[in-house]
Amino acid sequence: MTMKKNDSSHLHVGCDCGLETGRRSFLKAAAGFSGATVMGGIGFKQFAQAADLAPVDRNFVFVYFSGGWDQLLSLDPRDPDVFTAERVADTRILPAYSLLAQDPSFPTDVVTPNQRRGAPPSQLNFGPAMGNLVDHYDLMTVIRGINMTTLGHEVGYRYFLTGKSPVGSAARGSSTATEIVGQMKPKVPIPSVAYGVETYNDRYPGAANALKVSRAQDLILALSPSPLQLDSDIEKALVDLKGKRVACEAQLYDSRGMLTSYRDSRDQMQTILSTKLDRSFRFELPENAEVRQTYKLPAAGPYDSAQGRAALVATALKKGISQCVSLSLVGGLDTHFGTQVSQATNQRNGWNALATLVQDLRTSAHPSGGNFMDHTTVLVFSEFARTPLVNALSGRDHHLTSSCLIMGAGFKHNLAFGKSGDIGMSPGVIDHKTGLPDAKGRNIFPEQVIASVLASAKLDYAITRTEPLRAILA
Amino acid sequence: MRAHGTAGTWCSVAFALGVAFAGCGKARETATGEVTAVKKPPVDSPRPLPDPEQQGGHVGRAPRRITVAQLRASIEIATGRPWKGLDALAASLGRADFAFVASESTETNLVFAKFLEDGAREVCLDAAKSDLLAVGANRVLMRELPDKIGKLSDVDDAAMKKNLVYLSTRFWGQPLAGTELDDWAATTRMVSTRADATGKRYEAWAAMCIALITDARFITY
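The joint structure predicted for all components is written out below.
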């Protein structure tokens, strides 16, 4: 076994790092960065003070349906009696709800929600796969006819995550969740959680980074102390050693702040471990029996199902652990072949899990008044939709025009904004003041949706370089 | 040598800093094994370094975090044993699966920091335990300590520092020196005394190994 060869001991000259010009410049850069970290972001001290958990006044949930959803089955239905097989040459749209008949649990027609007590009648219709979420129509804004400008999975996905059209398939800018916690600086221990989704941060300090995990168990592991603990005095000595002054060379090496970001992450880790947050997400524990009951979770994990993910969101928000949760709720939607039932089943799993979450949040009192849905904005999206025609393999391919759902705080409710075309479900040409089709109107793009989400919380939406859809803002 | 390019990077960084970098190529070995001096370039020959003032205070490329594959190789080579739990955590550490995630993430985020700490504990405790049963070059973490170790706290300062310099070179490609070496030696002394008292002697050098792996110099290049 050999050592690394680059003996750079000659660089160790205290903090007098050689050239005077270089020293001045680098120290200036390092000082600038650390200042930005402490003052411009969620400083460690502020973070550490968040030991007494309290929900923030405004939460955000970003829900991703992975694979490209069939919006005919959910957010943008068509009447099968109008869009018939006989007229398909003219309409280029085939709802094909009759193909769901092999599973009697699915309706085979457009679903109109029953009027909710105390709410006006629904102005919204849905496809057969919306499941129980239709009961919450009174909290919804549905945006239809969105032009995704792409048929690539990663591109559409990252477009909606950031509100910026990717370069090639590479995301630009920060995730919307990062933008939100970067601007709002919530006093919660883990401002943003990204569960099974990508997350980006291009301009905020490391503390705005999402805690990114790919499965529920990883979240618990990340929040739990290591099972291999040393003697407590030795543990303390380790922490003290890491807190020692940074060597001059490391400071120079860190002129772009990467090492500071790593140190911030380690500081966050120490604080999080001391608050024992992992117990909140260990749904198998007796103290979490109510969560298991609400989300119909089994007595033992892992809890990676859609219902388990929804329970994770509720826990993070209600216990004041996070402000933003971004998650992939369901997958298996890239159904180029197979049956319509598999697409509908997978979608319904997601919508039902979301319905449980919304029901939980709207029946949970928020400390600031009202219920949690009054303080939570939920954005549900997919990377694009599926073709309105069924292909030769009984599936549907990628389609440019999609829709999205916004629920909760900051938006008008029981509202459909925009419309996809009645021929081939083309992107809508919409008057953005009314949301109605208008030959002189414009397309709706994801960045306008993201700008609306930011504007709904009175945040700076300049990064989207567009205007929000003001007609849907509350 | 670790699998990633840290060694060359430190040379590059040093060069970028404008430091006279005598250690990176004083002599050259010929095919016959003869060592000949390398001619020094004229003073005005090197291209001037870019002015850091014009570049936001930095020159050279930014440091990068190692990938999951590099981390696996680095830990195995530095400690002599693999991190067994790595595969289960690889996705959250940033490894692309090229099905759902097409690009490797090299963020130094909280999850990475936590899982790296867990992994360091796993391999370092194993390495330290086996070192106590081995001698000389068969050791990984205690190579420069006497073969017969009674109390760890009885090891003299010189041997302790020599071992720290060896380990930091092995783990980082860069020896501890100056006041930083003094700090690390003081911590080693403290944990050695404590480990002697608890009877878990392996914890002393396991702790130093954990500190080495979780240091930014181990995970960047």
